[in-house]
Write a structure and sequence with these properties.
By secondary structure, the chain is an all-alpha fold. It has one domain (about 20-70). About 70% of the residues lie in helices and about 0% in strands. The longest helix has 26 residues, at about 20-45. The radius of gyration is 17 Å and the shape is elongated.
C-alpha cells in the first residue's frame, strides 16, 4: 500500500510534463552515480582507475568485471 507521502509524490509527478519527469530522472541518476563514486573512493582511496570502474559497474549494475566494448 502506498503511503500518503507516496500518493502525494505520484500526484505531483503526474502533473509534470514528460520532459520535466525526464529531467528529474536524469538528475536523480547523476546524484546516485556521484554517491556511488564517493562511497567507492572513501573506502578505497588508492584504487586504480580500472578497479574503480569495475567497482562502480558492480555497484550500479550488479555485474563484476568490465563490460566489453561492443564496437570491438
Amino acid at each position: 500500500m502506498a503511503s500518503d507521502a507516496e500518493k502525494k509524490y505520484f500526484e505531483i509527478m503526474r502533473r509534470k510534463s514528460g520532459q520535466e519527469r525526464l529531467k528529474i530522472a536524469m538528475q536523480l541518476r547523476a546524484t546516485v552515480l556521484e554517491l556511488a563514486r564517493t562511497a567507492i573512493m572513501d573506502r578505497n582511496p588508492k584504487i586504480s582507475s580500472e578497479e574503480f570502474q569495475s567497482k562502480l559497474q558492480e555497484r550500479i549494475y550488479g555485474i563484476s568485471g568490465h563490460i566489453k566494448d561492443r564496437r570491438s
